[in-house]
Specification:
The complex is a heterodimer. Chain A is mostly helical. Chain A is built from 14 helices and four strands. Chain A has a domain at 49-302. Chain A has helices at residues 7-13, 15-31, 35-54, 57-61, 70-86, 91-119, 124-146, 194-212, 214-224, 226-231, 236-262, 272-284, 294-319, 322-363, and strands spanning 169-171, 184-187, 190-193, 264-266. Chain B is of the alpha+beta class. Chain B has a domain at 31-117: Immunoglobulin-like, CATH 2.60.40. Helices cover 25% and strands 39% of the residues of chain B. The chains are: A mainly alpha, B alpha+beta. The A-B interface holds A 87-94, 96-97, 100-101, 103, 154, 174 and B 18, 21-22, 25-26, 28-32, 76, 107.
Chain lengths: 364, 127
Amino acid sequence: MKQKYSFKGALISNLVPIVFLAFAAFAVPMSGLSIQYLLEEMITRLARDSLLVLSLIIPVLAGMGLNFGMVLGAMAGQIGLVLVVDWGIGGMPALLVAALVGTPISIGLGYFCGYILNLAKGREMVTSYIIGFFMNGAYQFLLLYCMGSIIPISNPELLLSRGYGIRNSMDLPNIRQVLDRLVSVNIFGMNIPIVTFAVIAAFCVFIVWFKGTKIGQDMRAVGRNRAVANGAGIPVEKTRIMAIIISTLIACYGQIVSLQNLGTINTYNSHEQVGIFSIAALLVGGATAENASIVNVFLGVFLFHLMFVVSPMAGKNLLGDAQLGEYFRVFVSYGIIAVSLLLHAWKKRHEMLERRLLENSVKE
Amino acid sequence: MNVKLRRNLLRVALCLIAVAGGFLLSLVGMYHSIILDNSEFSSAGAVLPPLEGLRVLSEAEPVEMSPDDRILVSTKGPSTTLVFEITSPETQQSREISYTLHMGFKKQFFLSVPAIVGGGKNPFLVE
């Protein structure tokens, strides 16, 4: 039966992007920034961050919520880049080697994360958040103590003055924007990185194709109802692990693409913000912990970054202080995560109560 | 051949291809530093004087070298060809000598230009 279209329903389900669009409609003229400048910034930022946000779609499909554990993939990507810089590789081969190095690391970390999440069913989001913190310790141990002592690092410029451990920040001299500049088109004075967008498009196609495969359908079934999926003979735990591995792997490639655009690595911080930022962007795009699509990714990155660019200037022009605009943006953007997670918890609780009531009425 | 064995063989083959691809990409994308030294070179009793009117043509812009000069040339890839253009101060005649260096995975090289131009078998210097 065809579902009846409800304006109210559409408004409620798209409330977050509508609020952000309204905020943007108010803040863009206030900022005084030109449309061309804003478009150029948005294109750069879409190319930089879309792949990272795309990595969150598959775990949502598998009913595992928003994968805060994607930071593990970002760590793997960074390890690949650090090693590539040490080996003195540059250009496109550097990105490919970094991806090759990052791939087994992110598969291993993804498996580990998926295994832990299987032990904490129903509490995946908070568990993956804490796994991110836990693995951050392991990452710091690896880069601060093992690199240069156990893992040979031949480039002394990368090492701390004590002789081991990687410096806090490092340039990517022969890697900076190699993917973006491989083929770029200048339209109305705006540089459009064709290859970067082609890579992002390829991953979008992969996600769409993957959803239609047997494993993709299994993931959807597991996401809807684990008990029913298990009853239908779907290996629930294996499917969930696979979802996290794919997410971690895409996050690894996403971090490599993102850092080549920036041209510099903040060795111990770059990956930390990636999880929160990507999840906030996805939610701003209208996704929820149970439902996320590719449209949500692009809309979210666009709106989230529009706020980044516009808020300080709007705050400065409106209130005389750029920092006030920034405070407001942080409050709204990250408040969205809190509200969304709260709604998710409330909905789950409501569903559970309804199920109990139904069970009790059947018993009676 | 059963399915499990075939899958495992495929996995091993993919891993090997990835490792081989990594090596190949590293070889293609590796940057090397070549230090060229234009000072007196002596080997097996023969002494080769520094060259005058020397120009080095590499992947980067051409660089002129005076006697006792040292320059750093940065190149990318498994091998590079350096061209030395020597103009005689007396006759003003020029001659070109090409030297192909296969670098592999080594990052830094230290070469004597008089040894290369003089046809020395081992132009590598150790600092």
